[in-house]
Amino acid sequence: MGGLIKHVAAVERTWADFILNGPSAIGDAAAMTEEDWARRDAEFRLLPDETLAGVLADYAEVARRTDELVATLPDLDAAHPLPKAPWFEPGAQWSARRVLMHVIAETAQHAGHADIIRESLDGAKSMG
Q1: Which class in CATH covers the domain with range 2-122?
Q2: Are 107 and 62 in contact (CB under 8 A)?
Q3: CA 3, CA 13: separation in Å to the nearest integer?
């Protein structure tokens, strides 16, 4: 669960940086090093020097920053080109509005993953 929270916070942080700074905030997937991939892999689990409280505090700070960004953006339609990556359409641009919708969708998807994990641990069903 801690890894899911870390991942969602990292994704939201990166996309907020994209809104502010453009594609350099995400980087080029083809240029990722083994160290970059290892850092990305570590994003999905709670490491020995991390605590759930620390991860939750980081997520709260990221959410606060995103809230502030949304409240102060002069134009939700301002767009940046997406960096080159096999998962992005070549030449595509995303507006701040599109990025924020992606963050909401990503958060919702991972909330579902967290619910599956919770159900497997406590046996309680949230639906059905």
Answers
A1: mainly alpha
A2: no
A3: 15
Whether the Cβ atoms of residue 85 and residue 29 lie closer than 8 Å to each other: yes
| Token pair belonging to 3 | 């890894």
Q: How far apart are CA 80 and CA 97, in angstroms?
A: 11
Q: What is the pLDDT of residue 128?
A: 66
Q: What is the pLDDT, as a whole number, of residue 74?
A: 95
- pTM given for the model: 0.87
CB-CB contact of 4 with 44 (8 Å): yes
Burial (CB < 10 A; 0-12, 13-18, 19+), residue 6, is buried
Question: For the chain, what are the domain ranges?
Answer: 2-122
| Count of helix runs (H) and strand runs (E) in the chain | 4, 2
d(CA 76, CA 10): 21
CA dist 5 → 43, 50, 63, 78 (Å)? 9, 12, 12, 28
Q: In the predicted model, what is the mean pLDDT of residues 25-41? A: 81
